[in-house]
Design goal:
By secondary structure, this protein is mainly α. The chain has twelve helices and six strands. Helix 5 crosses helix 9 and helix 6 crosses helix 8. This is Integrase/recombinase XerD.
């Protein structure tokens, strides 16, 4: 701070953070602050993390944005909008808050060769997960299968709606989140179709919020299941199946597990690379909904390295 310059006040900092949020939304989603949702704030926070911004700074920015929506609820008469929207921060779960604290960058125990690799499961291991899901079985079997066979992010699956399931065409539409366009993923009737039909036409109705919800997975307490709960379903199934492993630890002692909801998304990507014919890297990028090609290239490099290692067994 130079001579004669006043330190930025808390109020000025608050206004600056909210203004940056407004500008980011306009640039990245063509949205106003009143149209923002959880996914927008999560992506905003992720971008700050990958810019190597200090965790305290990220938390300050997100806290200012959250306070803005809290204040809007308190003083609705001052706002020229029909209804004050929900606070996007209310959707943040434990993993989202770990992201804000910077914990995702403080892992120990991984070998250097593993730091840029994604853990994934073979199809036989996924079947073990399906066989060992906690109750209610049909819903949780579908959660595992949709993560693995469609490549959902857990947040995308939590917000999936019935209208996104085309049971005639046997495909799922996933609205855009990290890519300019949404994606359509086909599924097999004998593997997913029959269970989807049974869930949508029968078992889903047993959930308290089913009649007033458009979402695929309503619960007894909310219109849709939470991303955090989806993660718990996967981890419990992995523990029941004896597949769970600790592959690293965070600096505060918390453990990083091999089998998570995102592991199933990685498994979808690796299975597609290994088994689908004529799948190029751009197609895989589209199927996964990656904004940046570099993210998808990690899977390709990992697949090539594994093929090279496997070939050593055939060298005379």
């Amino acid at each position: 701070m130079g001579p004669g310059e006043a330190a930025e006040s808390t109020a000025d900092r608050y206004v600056r953070h909210v203004r940056n949020w407004r500008n980011w939304l306009a640039k990245n989603g063509n949205k106003t602050v009143w149209e923002a949702e959880y996914d927008d704030l999560r992506l905003f926070a992720e971008e700050l993390v990958y810019q190597d911004m200090a965790p305290t700074t990220i938390s300050q920015r997100v806290s200012a944005i959250s306070k803005f929506y809290q204040d809007a609820k308190k003083f609705p008469d001052y706002l020229d909008i029909p209804e004050v929207p929900e606070n996007p921060y209310d959707g943040f779960d434990k993993d989202d808050k770990k992201l804000l604290r910077g914990d995702t960058k403080k892992k120990t125990g991984l070998k250097d060769s593993e730091k840029d690799e994604y853990p994934y499961l073979e199809s036989e291991e996924v079947e073990k997960l399906v066989e060992n899901v906690p109750a209610p079985r049909l819903r949780n079997e579908l959660i595992i299968k949709l993560l693995y066979h469609i490549g959902f992010r857990r947040g995308e699956l939590a917000k999936a709606k019935i209208k996104h399931i085309d049971r005639t065409d046997r495909s799922v539409y996933i609205p855009p989140r990290k890519s300019p366009e949404g994606r359509h993923i086909a599924y097999k009737q004998d593997y997913l179709g029959f269970q989807l039909d049974r869930w949508i036409d029968h078992d889903r109705d047993s959930m308290t919020y089913a009649s007033e919800s458009d979402y695929l997975f309503p619960t007894n307490n909310n219109e849709h299941i939470s991303a955090d709960y989806i993660g718990k379903v996967v981890k419990k199934a992995a523990e029941n199946a004896g597949l769970q492993e600790t592959i690293a630890e965070y600096s505060d002692g918390r453990k990083l597990h091999k089998v998570t909801a995102h592991t199933l998304r990685h498994s979808y990507a690796m299975r597609t690379l290994k088994t689908a014919e004529d799948v190029d890297i751009r197609t895989l990028q589209s199927l996964l909904g990656h904004e940046e090609l570099d993210t998808t290239l990690i899977y390709l490099q990992q697949s090539k390295e594994e093929a090279k290692e496997a070939s050593r067994g055939f060298v005379p």
